[in-house]
Amino acid sequence: MRYFLLAVYTVSFLVLASMQIQKPVKVVLFGDSITQAGVKPGGYITLMQESLKGYELIGAGIGGNKVYDLYLRMEADVLNKKPDVSVIYVGVNDVWHKQTSQTGTDPDKFINFYSALIRKMQSAGIKVIVCTPAVIGERTDFSNAQDGDLNRYSQIIRDLAKQYNCPLVDLRKEFLAYNMANNPENKESGILTTDRVHLNPAGNKLVADLMMKALK
Length: 216
Hints:
By secondary structure, the protein is α/β, with parallel strands linked by helices. The chain is about 55% helix and about 10% strand. The protein has a 5-stranded parallel sheet, sandwiched between helices. It is globular, with a radius of gyration of 20 Å.
C-alpha cells in the first residue's frame, strides 16, 4: 500500500510539474504600421492576447515598412526571439508607396524578398502564417486607385502560401466581402478603417478573429 501511494504521489507530482513548466506558444506578428498599432488598447494583437490562453504574442510592426524592410530586420525582430510562429502581414506600403513617393516594390522583387522571409523562418523551425494586404480605400465598386495592384500582390501571397505550405489569412478577400455586405453607400473609409488603411474597432476585431482562427 505504501509503495502504491508513493507511486501515485510521484505520478501526480510529475503531471503537475509538467503543467507548470509548459511554455506558451510564442508568436511574432511581423509587419508595418497596422501591426504597430495592433499592440495598442483595442488593437487586434491586444484583442488576440486577451482571448488566447497559452500564447505569448509579440508585436513587431514599424510604420512605413515594406517587404524589403522586414527582410533587413528579420534576424533581430523574429529569428533572435525564437518564436514558434511568425505572422507576416505586409504589402500595403509596397503598393501604396508606388503612388505616394515612387518607392513601392516591383512584383518580382516582392516575390523574391517575401520568399526569402518564408524560407529563412521555416529553416529556423518557425511556422509561418502569411496575410494578404487588406485595403487602401473601402469603396466596393473597385474605384479605389490601388485596387488592381492590391489584388495582384494578394494573389502573389496566395501563390506563395501554396508553394511553401503556409496557412493563409486572406484579409483582402475578407475585407472585400465585409464591405460588400456593410458598405451600401460605397464609402471610402469608416467601415473597417479610419483612413482607408488603418483599422477602426470593427477592423481590429475582424483581423483578430481571422488571425486567431489561423493560429488555432
